[in-house]
Structure formats: structure tokens, C-alpha cells
């Protein structure tokens, strides 16, 4: 084997220069388009020998390199610049070097947001975000995984969780992000530094090869989590807020207890597992039962998560909500935090209790409405009668005054002046004067009524408690008769 290797090596070194050709497809490209270096050899020769001698390490300082192989004797390197500007492709091997110009792209503006911290705990997720502004609505934008090669690749222990992968059709601007999370191998050192590459922003612009944009790689330092942490624990500088439940509910109802978590630094799958594990360890209570939570992620705020916990009320009475204990590793302080927020309580009623309460409330409301209507009706009728009596009195129409007074003061069952006097409590002299004025006949017609005395007594009766009761009873009977006729 050693002899074969040296023989092949001597053959490669003695090959004529015209057996292989290297060409640069374009020396000037817009930002996002690849600078293409093509290599072509004769069919009888091995292509890999020439590819290995190319100065790819020098190119990798300013470009992301992607290898396209079409056949056994042809290959092409696609070089995507990190940013616009003039570049010098270094020479090496069979490549003589070349000057290229990457021009700004007028159809798209790409801004990679810097990574907040270059130090992260293992299992701690951090976002890599890019802001995009399009000047052409026909462009289609999406995030993809880093293309990778033997020189440029993310570590195998690095996991990527996609949150927003593409802009919707018609959107001209937006922010795309992906979460990076590192699972530190057991054999690794306590603090390991690793180069991490950004996701690829791919833009389809109607041609065969899409544009691709990348952020420059960062050197991340990974810190191990403390060994005393439970296997499933939330990670981040988390704040907890709860939305209040209703003050009362029906027994058997399914309620949703909602919590909002700010500052979560975990991937979706890891957070789901941690929450389910935490829910399973909570103390049980006969007053209610809970089910698997629904987890809602906020795309506009990667660190905000809403958790809806279904609760079913099993008993009646004042039910205290569960004091859910939240445990999380605070990345700011590097300590395990245990939080038990105040949960509150609510009243649970059986169905028959709710129906009985509703019937009582409805009956009270109807009774109050009827009472108000009767009072309004009584005072309206009474005001009209008093106005008529005052008008007849001022006009001196004694006979009309008496007839009106008799109809008004009769109060249904009262049929004599004696009964009327007992009910109203007026003076006997007034009753005698009324009787005399109505029934006395001296040949000159009926005598005039004592208008002054009657008016005085009428004004007294306006505030007399006994006569008010009689008026109210008469009005109620009149209203019932009207309703019965209808």
C-alpha cells in the first residue's frame, strides 16, 4: 500500500499543468450571490488531489464555502461573502489567485443581530436573529441549517430549534430567528470554547441558484450546569405572572389557569419536557384535577411563553388553587431558584345551587321592578287627582269637588263617611260639613262645601301613612284588574 501511495503521488506531481483548469465564473457579484470557482480535470485523473491543494482555509476567513460536485472530473466551489466589499482570493496549488468585488444588493437588506453573550451554559438556548427588509415582494426568504464542510461546521453537540423559518408571502420586512443549544459531552473540559456558525438565510429570486447570507461565526464558551440540578429543570432569568381566574365557577367546569413566563432560555422540546415533569411532581388535591398544559410560544418575543393548565373542579365551596412550585436555574446568578407564587382561590357551586341562586335573583329583580312600577303608578294617579281637586276648589265648583273627592277617597271597600273618617283620621267636623253639604236640602239646593277645610285636610292626607296604605292597595287592585283584562 505504501508503494501504491507513493506511486500515485509521483504521478500527480508529474502531471502537466494543462491537465487541469481552474476558472473564476464572475469577478463581480451582488451580495448574496456566490463567487464560483470551477475546477475541471481530464477523465483519467483524480479530482480530489487538486481540491485538497486549494487554499480553502484562507478563503474561509471571508467566505462560507459550499462544494458542488457535478461529476468525477468536475467540481465547483460556491463562496458566499459575509458582507459586501472587495476581496482577494488567495492563491495556492493550481489556483493563481483573483480579485473579486461583492456589490451591495439593492433588493434586500440583511442585518444579523449580534449574539448577546459569548458565554452560555450547556442546555441554555440563545437566539440567532436576522432582520430582513425586501424591496421586491416577489422574493421568498427562509432560514436553513448551516451548509457545513470539513473546514466550517458546527459541533455535533449543538442543536438548533427553528422558531420562524420564513417570511409570509407579501411581507416586506420581518425578523427570523433560530435557537441554539449546546449539550456538552461528558468527556469535554469544564469550560470549552467552540466556533459556532449562523444559520443560512436563503432568498429565492427566480433563478436557479438562490442567494445565501451568513453572519460571521462567533467563539462561544460553554459552562457546565451544576451537578446538583435535577435532570429536567427550566433555564433562564424567568419571571412568573398569572392571569386571575373567575371568582366562581360550576362544579365540573373545565377552567384554564394561565401563566406567563418571561426570560425563558430553552428550546421548545426541552421546555415541554421540563414542564410536564414539573407538573407530574406537584401535590394532588381532591378538590380539583389538572391535565397536561398547553404551551403557547410568542414569536415576537422568543423568551416569552404562555402556559394554559386545564383544571376541573371536583367539589363545591371555597377552593384554594394549587400552590405550584416553579424551579429553574437562573443564568444571571448561576443558582437554582424555587418560586411559589400566591395562587388565590375561587368559589365552586353545584348546578342546583347556581339555578336556585339565579331564580332568587330573578325573582327579586322582577319583584323590585313591579314595586317600582306600582309606586310610580300610585304617585302619578294621586298627583292627577290632587291637581283636579285643586282646580275645582279654586273655581268654586262644590258639587264637582265633592264628586271627585268621593271617587278618590272611597278606596274601594269604604262605602260610608264613618269608615272614611276611621281610615283617614280627619276631624269629625269636616265629615259633618261634607255630609251636610251633600245631603241637606233646605229648598235652596245643596249647601256649598267647606272648601277651605277640605283643602286643608286633603293636604294632610297627602302625607298620612294610613291613607297611603289604602291608596296603594287600591292602586294594586286596579293594576291587577287591568293586567287580567289584557
Indicate the overall shape. Answer: elongated
* Major sheet attributes: 7 strands, mixed
Stretches where pLDDT is under 50 for at least 5 consecutive residues are 1-18, 441-447
* Number of H/I helices: 10
* Residues in β-strands, percent: 25-35%
Range of helix content: 25-40%
Q: Return the domain count.
A: 4
What does this structure look like?
By secondary structure, the protein is of the alpha+beta class. It has 4 domains: 18-103, Immunoglobulin-like, CATH 2.60.40; 112-204 and 216-223; 234-349, Immunoglobulin-like (Sandwich); 366-485, no CATH class. Helices cover 30% and strands 33% of the residues. It contains 10 helices and 27 strands. It has helices at residues 2-13, 47-52, 56-59, 268-280, 351-395, 398-409, 417-424, 428-439, 451-461, 465-485, and strands at residues 20-24, 28-30, 35-41, 63-71, 74-81, 85-89, 98-103, 108-112, 119-121, 125-134, 140-144, 158-164, 173-182, 192-196, 200-204, 211-213, 218-223, 234-242, 248-250, 254-264, 288-290, 294-297, 305-313, 317-320, 326-330, 335-339, 345-349. The strands form 7 sheets. Strands 18, 20, 21, 22, 23, 25 and 26 form a 7-stranded mixed sheet that branches. Strand 15 and strand 16 form a beta hairpin. Helix 5 runs antiparallel to helix 6 and helix 5 (351-395) crosses helix 10. The longest helix is centred in the last third of the chain and has 45 residues, at 351-395. The protein is elongated, with a radius of gyration of 47 Å. 22% of the residues are buried. Residues 1-18 and 441-447 have low confidence and may be disordered.
Amino acid at each position: 500500500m505504501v508503494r501504491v501511495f507513493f506511486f500515485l503521488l509521483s504521478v500527480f506531481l508529474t502531471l502537466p499543468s494543462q491537465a487541469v483548469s481552474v476558472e473564476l465564473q464572475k469577478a463581480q457579484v451582488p451580495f448574496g450571490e456566490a463567487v464560483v470557482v470551477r475546477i475541471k480535470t481530464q477523465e483519467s485523473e483524480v479530482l480530489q488531489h487538486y481540491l485538497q491543494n486549494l487554499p480553502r482555509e484562507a478563503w474561509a476567513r471571508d467566505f462560507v464555502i459550499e462544494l458542488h460536485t457535478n461529476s468525477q472530473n468536475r467540481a465547483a466551489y460556491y463562496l458566499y461573502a459575509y458582507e459586501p466589499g472587495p476581496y482577494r482570493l488567495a492563491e495556492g496549488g493550481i489556483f493563481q489567485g483573483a480579485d473579486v468585488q461583492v456589490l451591495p444588493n439593492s433588493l434586500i437588506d440583511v442585518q444579523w443581530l449580534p449574539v448577546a453573550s459569548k458565554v452560555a451554559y450547556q442546555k441554555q438556548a440563545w437566539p440567532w436573529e436576522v432582520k430582513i427588509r425586501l424591496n421586491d415582494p416577489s422574493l421568498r426568504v427562509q432560514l436553513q441549517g448551516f451548509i457545513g464542510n470539513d473546514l466550517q461546521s458546527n459541533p455535533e453537540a449543538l442543536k438548533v430549534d427553528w422558531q420562524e423559518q420564513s417570511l409570509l408571502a407579501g411581507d416586506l420586512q420581518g425578523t427570523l430567528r433560530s435557537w441554539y443549544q449546546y449539550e456538552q459531552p461528558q468527556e469535554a473540559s469544564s469550560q470549552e470554547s467552540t466556533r459556532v456558525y449562523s444559520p443560512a438565510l436563503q432568498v429565492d429570486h427566480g433563478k436557479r441558484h438562490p442567494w445565501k447570507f451568513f453572519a460571521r461565526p462567533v467563539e462561544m464558551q460553554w459552562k457546565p450546569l451544576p451537578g446538583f440540578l435535577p435532570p429536567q429543570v427550566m433555564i433562564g432569568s424567568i419571571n412568573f405572572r398569572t392571569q386571575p381566574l373567575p371568582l366562581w365557577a360550576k362544579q365540573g367546569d373545565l377552567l384554564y389557569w394561565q401563566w406567563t413566563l418571561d426570560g425563558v432560555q430553552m428550546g421548545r422540546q426541552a421546555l415541554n419536557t421540563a414542564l410536564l415533569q414539573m407538573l407530574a411532581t406537584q401535590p394532588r388535591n381532591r378538590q380539583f384535577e389538572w391535565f397536561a398544559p398547553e404551551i403557547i410560544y410568542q414569536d415576537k418575543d422568543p423568551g416569552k411563553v404562555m402556559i394554559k393548565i386545564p383544571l376541573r373542579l371536583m367539589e363545591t365551596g371555597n377552593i384554594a388553587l394549587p400552590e405550584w412550585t416553579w424551579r429553574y436555574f437562573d443564568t444571571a446568578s448561576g443558582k437554582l431558584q424555587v418560586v411559589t407564587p400566591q395562587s388565590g382561590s375561587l368559589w365552586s357551586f353545584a348546578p342546583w345551587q347556581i339555578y336556585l341562586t339565579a331564580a332568587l335573583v330573578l325573582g327579586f329583580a322582577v319583584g323590585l321592578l313591579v314595586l317600582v312600577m306600582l309606586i310610580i303608578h300610585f304617585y302619578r294617579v294621586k298627583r292627577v287627582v290632587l291637581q283636579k281637586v285643586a282646580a275645582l276648589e279654586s273655581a268654586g265648583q262644590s258639587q264637582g269637588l265633592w264628586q271627585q273627592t268621593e271617587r278618590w277617597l272611597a278606596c274601594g271597600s269604604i262605602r260610608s263617611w264613618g269608615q272614611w273618617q276611621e281610615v283617614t283620621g280627619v276631624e269629625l267636623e269636616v265629615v259633618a260639613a261634607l255630609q251636610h253639604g251633600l245631603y241637606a236640602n233646605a229648598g235652596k239646593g245643596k249647601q256649598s262645601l267647606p272648601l277651605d277645610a277640605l283643602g286643608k285636610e286633603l293636604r294632610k292626607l297627602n302625607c298620612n301613612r294610613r291613607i297611603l296604605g289604602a291608596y296603594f292597595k287600591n292602586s294594586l287592585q286596579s293594576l291587577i284588574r287591568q293586567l287580567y283584562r289584557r
